[in-house]
Amino acid sequence: MTESDSYERMEREDLEQIQVERLQATLNRACQNVAFYRDKYERLGIDISKVKSLADLAALPFTTKEDLRDNYPYGMFAVPLKDIVRIHSTSGTMGKPVVVGYTAGDIAIWTGLVARVLRGAGVTEHDLAQIAFNYSMSSAGLGLHYGAEKIGASVIPSSGESVAKQVAVMRDYKTTVLIGTPSYALHIASYLREMKIHPDELRLRAGLFGAESWSEAMRDEIEAGLHIKAYDNYGLTELIGPGVAFECLERDGLHVNEDHFIMEIVDPGTLEPARPGEEGELVFTTITKQGFPLIRYRTGDLSSLLPGDCPCGRKTARMKRVAGRVDDVIIIDGVNVSPSQIEEIVLKVEGLDPNYRIIVDREKGVDTIEVQAEISGDFPFFDEGAKVNALCRRLQASLDEGLGIRTKANLVERNTLERSEGSKLRRVVDKRPK
Ligand code: ZN
């Protein structure tokens, strides 16, 4: 265990003391160096010297993605650019990207946090870690790269290669750990099936997947297709990148790196704290970052706090795996439906590939959901109308039963729906007029 990791086993009281001290330092720095915080707190009459406990944090306003976009590109930086050694950004598919900066100290902290993520999944210096994440502007690839090197694993940066090349590297270099998005892992699994390569021809034993929310059904599918144990980890570029929370070997919730992030869970409607165990929106405050501190950042991700201690010995709080996003929740006939519920259902229907799309639209003032799923390669009968119709009816019946609302099932031929090539994939297409 390294010195930094001893924080993970600290008693709650001691950990909270450290959190408060770090929070106060962060607030001072942010108000001194970032006009956004200084002006906003002044306008609202907030005196940061009054923040003396974690509970006092609730008196501060939230920071939203809109705030970050409004300050594009460098408005939220707390140090001069000469002290920034790395810049990453979000994809910006939903609007202006968010640009984040790291000092050399931030990179060192980040690397240590990602090393924790990897150690949590049992990765060691004996492993060969193949990183299929897109490196480019996104923080996922380089973040995991540095962390894996830190623990001494042999790192293979295979990002951007074709799936055929990824598999050839995996087989020839004897890769033991695959790192990427869960949808890309499924893509590799379906390629193996197609090429009739048995997963045991590979040395893969574990996979660390993140950057998308993925259901337990998808986990089962990945594990069966690649013969590995699959671990979830959580982070977002705005906060630091990967390294915010991770699954240990118990795989019962994700340990939050609370010595660097303060987690809150709020009701997304009222923005009041969610009751313990109740699902709500994750809100994080960074308490060690120098370049890009964030105070009460609303992530838009839904989760809840898990009760009790983890048998692994870490004492940090555990959050439930992210179940979806606040803006992804679809409300039809007054019933909340999350894409992960639909994913669970699609993955259980035999004859379908685990690649699907959810189209939300509005017809005559009524919201509608169409679920498009790909027919599996093990089911080569797309031209046989009767069989396809029967399969479609099976999917429809499963959706009707599982969701209790009206949906429309539709099947498409294999490889027609977009697949993830290592970066985020949006499975929900919302066509409703805004
Ligand atoms: Zn644990």
Please describe what this structure looks like:
The protein has 434 residues and is an alpha/beta fold. It has two domains: 328 residues, ANL, N-terminal domain (Rossmann fold); 102 residues, GMP Synthetase, Chain A, domain 3 (2-Layer Sandwich). The protein is 30% helix and 24% strand. The chain has ten helices and 20 strands. The strands form five sheets. It has an eight-stranded mixed β-sheet with strand order 4-3-5-6-7-8-9-13, with helices on both faces. Strands 10-11-12-14 form a four-stranded antiparallel β-sheet. The chain has a four-stranded mixed β-sheet with strand order 19-18-17-20. α6 crosses α7. The mean pLDDT is 92. Bound molecules: zinc ion (ZN).
Measured by DSSP, the beta-strand proportion falls in 15-25%
* CATH superfamily annotation of the largest domain: ANL, N-terminal domain
For the record, the count of structural domains works out to 2
Helix-strand pattern:
HHHEEHEHEHEHEHEEEEEEEEEEHEEHEE
Features:
8-stranded mixed beta sheet, 10 helices, 20 strands, alpha/beta, globular, 2 domains, binds zinc ion, 4-stranded antiparallel beta sheet, 434 residues, single chain, 30% helix, Rossmann fold, GMP Synthetase, Chain A, domain 3
Short description:
By secondary structure, the protein is α/β, with parallel strands linked by helices. The protein has helices at residues 12-33, 35-43, 65-70, 104-120, 139-150, 163-172, 182-194, 216-226, 339-348, 385-403; strands at residues 86-89, 99-102, 128-131, 154-157, 177-180, 206-209, 229-236, 241-247, 254-256, 261-266, 280-286, 297-303, 318-319, 324-325, 330-332, 335-337, 352-363, 366-375, 408-412, 428-430.
